[in-house]
Amino acid sequence: MKLSVVSTLYRSAPYIRDFCARVSAQARAFAGDDYEIILVNDGSPDDSLQLAISEHLADPHVVIVDLSRNFGHHKAMMTGLAHAEGEYVFLIDSDLEELPEWLESFARRMHEEKCDVVYGVQVERKGGRFEQVTGTWFYGLFRLVTGVALPRNVVTARLMSRRYMKSLVLHDEREFFIAGLWHLTGFDQRAEPVEKLSHSETTYTLGHKVSLLVNSITSFSSAPLVGIFYVGVTILVFALAYIAYAVYVRLTAATPVSGYTSLIASVWLLGGLMVSFMGVIGIYLSKVFVEAKRRPYSIVRDVFRRSA
What we know:
Strand content: 15-25%
Shape: elongated
Strand order of the largest sheet: 7-5-6-4-1-2-3-8
Number of domains: 2
Helix content: 40-55%
Radius of gyration: 25 Å
């Protein structure tokens, strides 16, 4: 198999037919008849699965991986990659905001530069002011906390060599940040500027973005735990310095250091820090708990694939 195209389905019914037609045209130009289109149904509540099965019956190149429920976009993508058999793997979203026609330019770049991955980055981040600002602080905070410089405004679409893809799916984590894994896997990766379309408003609220940031950082780095140690040491140094100052004043001025308000403020400060630190530790403990149980990150209910 020369090429595998992998995509996920969730509320994708309006796009499936057009997506399959356009992807098939690009795949045929790239690999002749030696390709497959893997659609992972991530527990979509609409009729995406039925439409995908219709595409499979009409075109045996279309492979359907039906998950038992909704596991999330990132886990569905990893499941699809695990089922890919191609020498090259083209990962792309099915909502047509990312163009199937990018395959041609990605393949040309990969051939010219002999690299393992060509991935898309937005020339200008799509969406309104909220989308652009939150995207900027997401990558900025991630880099500040973890020290890892992820490509900014990266999209899902990427063309990968099989050796890269096989290394990527070796990550057997239950809670993961897939953009971090793309970067962590290494190999020779090149960015291709693209213009992503926007068919609708983003469904990611500020709360969702904060949750994603917390999950991304704690899944990819232990920096917050190290940060807790240094903050604790800093507080200890200031506390010792204040104690020394209070003793000095008491011995020299023969009067105690006053300040009931500052005392209460200090108690609230330390109490808040302790609770927040316990919360950070709790997040990591919960991830250890999830990983220790070794539950599968997705469950496949059925696979529709043509016979060999």
